[in-house]
Amino acid sequence: MASHPIPSASFTSRNVLSVILGGGAGTRLFPLTKERSKPAVPLGGKYRLVDVPISNCINSGLQRVFVMTQFLSASLHRHISQSYKFDHFSRGFVEILAAEQTPTSTSWYEGTADAVRKNLVHLTSQPFEYLIILSGDQLYRMDYLKMLSHHIEHEADLTVATIPVEKESVAGFGIMQMNDAYEITRFEEKPKEAALQEELKLPKSWYSKLEINSDGDLWLASMGIYIFNRKTILELLDNAHTDFGRHIIPEAIQTHKLSSYVFQGYWEDVGTIKAFFEANLDLTSEMPKFNFFDMQSPVFTRPRFLPASKVNGGVITNSLLSDGCIVRKAQLKRCMLGIRSVVGEDTDLERVVMMGSDDYESQESIETHHRKGEPPIGIGAHTKVRNAIIDKNARIGKNCVITPEGKAQEMDHALCHVRDGIVIIPKNAIIPDNTVI
Q1: Global pTM exceeds 0.70
Q2: What per-residue confidence (pLDDT) applies to 1?
Q3: How far is CA 98 from CA 22, 95, 105, 305, 306, in A?
């Protein structure tokens, strides 16, 4: 695509307001969302999902950010308050907008559009010309100023970020068509009929213009990232429609000018267990698709001041160890160890996402749990784990075996859950010594 002039930082700080939607129940990420909201789910060993869109905002020079929450939001509130603090002179903020009852509304958020509508009183109290709406469960790196420049250049009322996807993904996204001026002419939410999908296919005449190096069939999918003019958002939400994808955007095509901003970098919707698991494991690759080591656009999070990780021998292959881990002569292959993870000696882990713990356990706590027949926080010695997510503060004993082999793709058990063939040990779970799962 041709390059577009980028608005200056002073322009954006005065005229752009960012909103991150984090109010969904996150049912597709259960049980990781059993005790926390979806944006608060740990990612990449030391981050939270919400850190990604917030960091994209900060790296784009956008420092006025609202995060809309609803379910189990206490840990998310705590994380944001401890992570994002701006000086008094920047006028920047990252603030929570929790679902609330008002004299005119006593209901929960009923969809993405409804969440924004119910917070218009707070949003419109801020000066802005452009409103950027973002999702809280996606892994990507984007300069929003480039999208804003596209929006301004094409004189759009609403711009939708889109990404080319292959056929197997079409039924899970909103798919759109555009004309030669990038104007959206048609939008279909999650089309499943083969004939309809064929109609929506991206013409191959677009491939060279978009610098797409592929001979396969592609479709333009909505990324759930939108830029609205201030006047436009007020007009489009002056109704009872609840969702942007199902209601607002399809109708807006008839009344407003909608533009497609085609993004072609790495982007992953990590709203399912399988996608979340694979995205984390990909970070252990020699050349991961998402690069946390890119210091031109870093991902920010809470500073914890933990000690360096300690490895007392073992064999570690293609794995990431976060701050403050202790590994005792273990074998790790394609593993992601979160902060303060403790792994016992002769333990064998392969394709494991371990989220670590909130605190180091004291000797007194270890002895108290030992008297109750419970292991310490972490993974005990001589334990084997395959294809698993181990949530925070889990206590896994010695000589255990945890694997999805021989189990259904989806199942629930007192000690664990299985989703998409991946074993999930819940937060604060206790797995006694010699347990076989």
Answers
A1: yes
A2: 42
A3: 10, 10, 14, 29, 31
